[in-house]
């Protein structure tokens, strides 16, 4: 399968996403939670907040690439603060 360039960073990215999904599945089984209502006014669970975080982080990274010539590490830092905010207030 030579159609996809599996570089080290690409493989690491997908491995981290897979590990995160497994971790959240184990957490959901061991520590079930009741949905909570945050600033969006909708009930969310840990999984919902993870999805919102991943989706928002994708848009942050795309905007970073399109608008700035700064290193992508800066977008990672912004995404980290975004994830903390989502898990705290959403």
Describe the structure.
The chain is mainly α and 90 residues long. The chain is built from 3 helices and 2 strands; from the N terminus they run αββαα. It has a two-stranded antiparallel sheet.
What secondary-structure arrangement, pairings included, does this model have?
Blueprint: H1 8-30, E1 36-37, E2 43-44, H2 46-67, H3 73-89
Antiparallel strand pairs: 1-2
Helix pairs in contact: 2-3
Give a quick account of the main beta sheet: strands, pairing sense, barrel closure. Answer: 2 strands, antiparallel
Beta-strand residue fraction:
under 5%
Helix content: 55-70%
> Widest sheet: strand order?
1-2
Question: Keywords, please?
Answer:
2 strands, mainly alpha, 69% helix
Please outline what is shown here.
The protein is mainly alpha-helical.
């Amino acid at each position: 399968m030579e159609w996809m360039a599996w570089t080290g960073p690409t493989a690491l990215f997908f491995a981290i996403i897979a590990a995160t999904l497994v971790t959240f599945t184990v957490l959901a089984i061991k520590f079930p939670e009741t949905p909570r209502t945050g600033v969006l006014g909708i009930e969310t669970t840990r999984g919902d907040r993870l999805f919102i975080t991943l989706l928002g982080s994708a848009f942050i990274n795309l905007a970073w690439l399109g608008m700035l010539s700064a290193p992508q590490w800066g977008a990672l830092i912004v995404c980290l603060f975004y994830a903390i905010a989502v898990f705290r207030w959403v």
